[in-house]
């Protein structure tokens, strides 16, 4: 076995704040490898909104604005993370690493050595794996993949057999498992017509592909300048991101499911066009978390609302199987060197690219 280094390069988050809260280190200590862990040499790591929102403190209930990627002065130190708890610093973020196993703990399967793996973003207490209150997130409650090496629990990794590059595989974990979780919660099937907001982003594009995989009819909302790129994911129709009269724009379409990652001022319009008995699912609020709801619409139309964050255990493994069978395709928009993470996150926040951005150690 090749001797492992004592230190590594890593982008380290020193506290909540703007992009300058990241510090580049050439000699950061290597991750510890426990008995149930594997050590992975990172080949690529995707960017996602959770990393941005955690860094900025946007998850704090004291913040009522849309996500900007900048620091929020109003953020409360008591609830600045997805789980509503303080974060321990320094922290290496990065929930979407892909790489090869270079060492295994005493309880791990030795056959994992040199295998290419993906990591489940949801870190479970394996003595009580279905308890949501004991679940953490990779790169939040545990150091993640913005580094040359990362350790992960053996039960959270999946070997992936694919001709896709590490960078392409690194687009899947957060975006596609988030999207699949939303569709699982709303039980989307061939009889549904799904309206997807934010369709030019990573989760939006994943929602299109995964809803089509289930046989649903899909209508995407996206800025018109990005329609050509959105079309590559295969929606049945693409509309502007916020039509002035959504009902008119939809024509005779009967929307049974709204899959929303945007929120904001347009939210009541989305609820109004749902068919009786329709389902709404949310896994983001990039345009703003504060919305207005007419409860009469909710109960008189027999609507069902679902929030989607912590996912059932099978979702990650299901997505890996879809990759291996070629049923979904990556949406790799751009790659940046890990050392340029600040620039990569700025591009992600400003939506310079359609799809997913990946950093390479």
UniProtKB/TrEMBL annotation:
GO terms for molecular function: NADPH binding; oxidoreductase activity, acting on NAD(P)H; zinc ion binding. Keywords: NADP, Oxidoreductase. Coiled coil: none annotated. Residues 17-359 form the Enoyl reductase (ER) domain. It comes from the Bacteria. Its EC number is 1.1.1.301. It holds the Pfam family ADH_zinc_N. The keyword NADP applies. InterPro entries: ADH-like_C (IPR013149), ADH-like_N (IPR013154), ER (IPR020843), GroES-like_sf (IPR011032), NAD(P)-bd_dom_sf (IPR036291), Quin_OxRdtase/zeta-crystal_CS (IPR002364). This is D-arabitol-phosphate dehydrogenase. It comes from Roseovarius aestuarii.
């Amino acid at each position: 076995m090749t001797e492992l280094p004592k230190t590594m390069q890593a982008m380290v988050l020193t506290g909540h704040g703007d992009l300058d809260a990241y510090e580049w280190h050439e000699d950061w200590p290597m991750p510890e490898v426990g008995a149930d862990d594997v050590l992975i040499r990172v080949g690529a790591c995707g960017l996602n909104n959770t990393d941005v929102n955690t860094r900025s403190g946007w998850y704090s209930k004291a913040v009522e604005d849309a996500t900007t990627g900048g620091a929020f002065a109003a953020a409360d130190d008591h609830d600045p993370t997805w789980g509503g708890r303080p974060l321990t610093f320094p922290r290496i973020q990065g929930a979407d690493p892909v790489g090869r196993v270079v060492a295994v703990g005493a309880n791990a399967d030795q056959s994992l050595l040199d295998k290419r793996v993906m990591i489940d973003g949801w870190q479970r207490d394996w003595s009580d794996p279905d308890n949501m209150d004991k679940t953490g997130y990779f790169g939040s409650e545990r150091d993640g993949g913005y580094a040359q090496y990362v350790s992960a629990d053996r039960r959270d990794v999946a070997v992936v057999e694919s001709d896709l590059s590490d960078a392409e595989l690194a687009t899947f974990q957060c975006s596609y498992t988030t999207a699949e979780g939303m569709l699982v919660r709303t039980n989307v099937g061939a009889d549904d017509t799904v309206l997807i907001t934010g369709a030019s982003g990573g989760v939006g594009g994943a929602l299109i592909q995964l809803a089509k995989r289930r046989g649903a009819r899909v209508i995407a909302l996206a800025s018109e300048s990005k329609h050509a790129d959105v079309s590559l994911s295969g929606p049945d129709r693409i509309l502007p991101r916020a039509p002035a009269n959504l009902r008119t724009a939809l024509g005779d379409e009967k929307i049974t499911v709204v899959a929303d990652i945007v929120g904001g001022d347009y939210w009541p319009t989305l609820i109004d066009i749902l068919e009786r008995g329709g389902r709404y699912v949310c896994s983001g609020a990039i345009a703003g978390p504060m919305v207005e709801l007419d409860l009469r619409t909710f109960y008189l139309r027999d609507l069902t609302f679902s929030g989607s964050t912590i996912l059932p255990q099978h979702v990650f493994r299901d997505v890996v199987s879809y990759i291996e069978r070629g049923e979904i395709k990556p949406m790799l928009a751009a790659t940046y060197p890990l050392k340029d993470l600040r620039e990569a996150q700025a591009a992600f926040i400003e939506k310079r690219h359609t799809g997913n951005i990946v950093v390479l150690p």
